[in-house]
Design a protein that fits this description.
heterodimer, A: alpha/beta, Rossmann fold, Ubiquitin-like (UB roll), 5 domains, globular, B: alpha+beta, Glutaredoxin, 2 domains, 5-stranded mixed β-sheet, 5 strands
């Protein structure tokens, strides 16, 4: 094509909400207004991952990486970069970046390796041609015409691909169960019900590269002998739903889904099914119940869904990230894939790096990368000079990782060994301002709310644990409460029906293990060192330091600060809601927190 | 409960949707999504009509509606505020936003203001963790907000 430049604009949810669409439209208008429509091609792409700095614009071929771009910058980008070929320096992430250097030189990207996200931020996810141009559907073609089902399964086994939903079950073995079960009807299911708070890698994959999921599901269909696939996706992800629907329609049009794919005897189609906000539906059997239109309650396994799943038929269920890996493994081979990663865990992992971290965003790193590399080299460390306290992985089912384990190379086993888990890929960084009891309570509240209530260890155990934590956070805890928590955790782990109940105590056990002294402080001294547990803290005004400027009284949302102008003020402790606004406002350090 | 044609609540579009899905197994949740898309919640009468159209017991329909967080049985406010309570947003002050929002509007979570203008809910992660803390008003996302900015955002929607 004759375009001189390509302007890639991120159209993921995070960038869209930072006015990315207005930016796209402004660029479109400017290209026309300045008469250079023919010189630059404007492309809406998937997530670049660097959400903190969004909206992001990348211009090819020189790979200029513009951050925090607004519609107001469109005129300048077109006039300077497109017409005169000069970078708009003030928009560059790295202000010193010379023309011609690639965005890979940015620290955020240097240690990343993109397999799952290979097309995110590169192609326009709304056009199947762009996916095909990047070897899209070549793997499906290879599987249909050149490989037997057993060969595909052997390839996956040799590659060492394990389920990215969290449990890490070997994908090839799972498929072989379904393949070896006799049945007229089998199903392929994609779990895109990303319920873990703080994780959004599946959403970004569906938004940025929907065809990779469709292609992989069709490959599975061919391999195990299924002709129908379902994608179970959260209703809260409207953009991802739209992109998937569009992708399915285009794939049907191109004969890559539907009857006799690519002229072969293989037929396969995919439908979407919407979730409705139930975390427990991430559990396989609950997910299947939900697709069947029922309350999403788990049932005991075995039989496993691979043998007896959707409507009683053998069903392969994999998570979005697992699916997105598969076309690349087929194309590049097991040897290539298994060369990446650690002894037990091959390939890469996508993490949503969030919380108290400078470069928040979506990252993909080879297995075996250390937490220190992720948090400091990619994430840029903790903002505002605060001290790192813990990183949480695995969401409500996981645990915390502390300073002392930062150099552990991550894989499924190593994270479990230090009391956490891989989980689906949320990684939340916490600093000294975060209270571990408060965070644990947050996760417990989540799990209690999401428990389906079917089995009592989870329903009653979770609630009891929450109540104890609540007591501790209010300074009313007793030493024996810690033993009760441990006993309950043991019972829940052993006796709960599904993964939700079995893992609900994980945040408790992990924080008791690593931050026992904080529990003891709350119980014995009635003290919360982070100042998060509101019942254990108070804001008071130091009389000598207060000059009576009234700034605190004006900012107080409940008007509980009184005092004459130029005289020391007083906080009415009964009325105070401990929002901390006065503390932030005071310029004279006259307000004490503690 | 039977409704005559005049009283029917489901629109012809929903009827057409149900017709399309009727024969597919597992259609109930998809139909309920369609109903909620239309009304903003699942009205009682609509649930009865869906039961008749799909030939499933009403009890099953309410069982499903009450199991899933997404479905609502009461009418939300004209402007729907949703404060994200995913982990990243929680750590960065999501709870403060909820507290302030409740104070500002004088209603608790999952309730509608007396004038029907606003309703507030806490939602699970909406996947914009890089922008935490996040809230949405009528689906429009506002990132990196503090309590003061939130009050201004709410005021923008007042009377609209």
């Amino acid at each position: 094509m004759a375009f001189k430049n390509y302007i890639l604009v991120c159209a993921g949810t995070a960038c869209e909400s930072s006015k990315g669409i207005a930016l796209y439209e402004a660029l479109e208008k400017e290209l026309k207004a300045q008469g250079v429509e023919g010189e630059a091609q404007l492309v809406k792409t998937g997530c670049f991952g660097f959400c903190e700095q969004g909206p992001i614009v990348k211009i090819l071929p020189d790979e200029s990486f513009y951050v925090k771009v607004g519609p107001e910058h469109a005129q300048q980008i077109v006039a300077e970069h497109i017409i005169k070929g000069r970078q708009v320096k003030e928009l560059l992430y790295d202000k010193e970046q010379a023309a011609g250097t690639s965005s890979d030189s940015i620290d955020f990207y240097q240690k990343q390796q993109r397999i799952v996200l290979r097309n995110c931020g590169v192609i326009n996810p709304e056009f199947i041609d762009e996916y095909i141009a990047r070897e899209g559907y070549a793997a499906l073609e290879k599987v249909i015409f050149e490989m037997t089902g057993d060969e595909v399964i052997e390839e996956l086994k040799a590659a060492g691909l394990r389920g990215r939903g969290g449990a890490g079950f070997p994908t090839g073995i799972k498929w072989s169960f379904t393949k070896n079960t006799e049945s007229d009807q089998k199903y392929i299911v994609c779990n895109a019900d990303e319920g873990d708070p703080g994780a959004y890698m599946d959403r970004s994959t569906c938004e940025g590269d929907p065809h990779s999921v469709l292609e992989a599901m069709a490959i599975a269909g061919r391999t195990v002998g299924a002709n129908q696939g379902f994608i179970y996706i959260r209703a809260e992800y409207p953009l991802a739903i739209e992109r998937l629907e569009n992708a399915i329609a285009q794939a049907r049009e191109y004969g890559l889904l539907g009857d006799n794919i690519l002229g072969s005897d293989f037929s396969f189609d995919i439908e979407l099914r919407l979730g409705a906000g139930a975390f427990v539906c991430g559990e396989e059997t609950a997910l299947l119940a939900s697709i069947e239109g029922k309350r999403g309650m788990p049932i005991p396994r075995p039989p496993f869904p691979a043998v007896k799943g959707l409507w009683g038929q053998p069903s392969v269920i994999n998570n979005v990230e697992t699916w997105a890996n598969i076309p690349m493994i087929i194309l590049k081979g097991a040897a290539w894939f298994s060369s990446i990663g650690t002894e037990s865990t091959k390939g890469t992992k996508v993490f949503a790096l969030t919380g108290k971290i400078k470069n928040s965003g979506l990252i993909e790193v080879p297995m075996g990368t250390t937490l220190r590399e992720i948090i400091y080299d990619i994430g840029g460390g903790i903002p505002s000079g605060k001290k790192f306290k813990a990183a949480q992985t695995g969401g409500p089912s996981g645990g915390v990782l502390t300073e002392e384990v930062l150099d552990t190379p991550i894989d499924y086993e190593s994270l479990q060994a230090v009391g956490s888990m891989m989980g689906s890929g949320g990684m939340i960084v916490m600093d000294e301002d975060d209270c571990m009891i408060d965070v644990t309570k947050f996760y417990l509240e989540f799990s209690v709310d999401e428990s389906c209530g079917k089995c009592s260890p989870c329903r009653i155990g979770g609630r009891t644990c929450y109540n104890i934590l609540d007591k501790i956070s209010k300074g009313q805890g007793k030493m024996e409460d810690l033993d009760t928590l441990k006993d309950l955790a043991q019972a829940m782990r052993k006796a709960s029906l599904c993964g939700l109940g079995q893992t609900t105590p994980n945040p408790i056990m992990s924080t008791i293990n690593y931050f026992n002294e904080e529990y003891l402080e709350h119980i014995n001294e009635g003290k919360c060192r982070a100042g998060k547990c509101k019942d254990l803290m108070a804001y008071t005004i130091v009389e000598d330091k207060c000059i009576g400027c009234t700034a605190c009284a004006r900012v107080c949302p409940v008007n509980c600060i009184s005092g004459e102008v130029k005289a020391a003020h007083v906080i009415d402790q009964d009325q105070c809601i401990k929002c901390g606004q006065c503390f932030d406002k005071c310029k004279f350090d006259a307000i004490l927190k503690g | 409960m039977t409704a005559t044609a005049e009283e029917r609540m489901l629109t012809p579009e929903i009827d057409a949707f149900i017709e399309k899905w009727k024969e597919k197994p597992g259609n109930l949740i998809m139909v309920l999504h369609r109903v909620q898309e239309e009304f903003g919640y699942v009205p009682r009468q609509a649930a009865f009509e869906v039961a008749a159209a799909l030939d499933v017991p009403v009890a099953k329909i309410f069982g499903v509606i009450t199991f899933y967080h997404f479905f609502k049985l009461t009418k939300p406010g004209k402007n729907q505020i949703a404060v994200c309570m995913g982990t990243a947003c929680y750590l960065k002050g999501g709870q403060d936003l909820i507290d302030e929002c409740e104070r500002k509007l004088g209603v608790g979570l999952n309730t509608v203001t007396e004038d029907g203008e606003f309703s507030v809910e806490a939602v699970r992660c909406i996947g914009c963790c890089g922008l935490a803390p996040v809230l949405t008003v009528n689906g429009e996302v506002f990132g990196g907000v503090n309590t003061k900015e939130m009050v201004k955002i709410i005021e923008q929607f007042e009377g609209k």
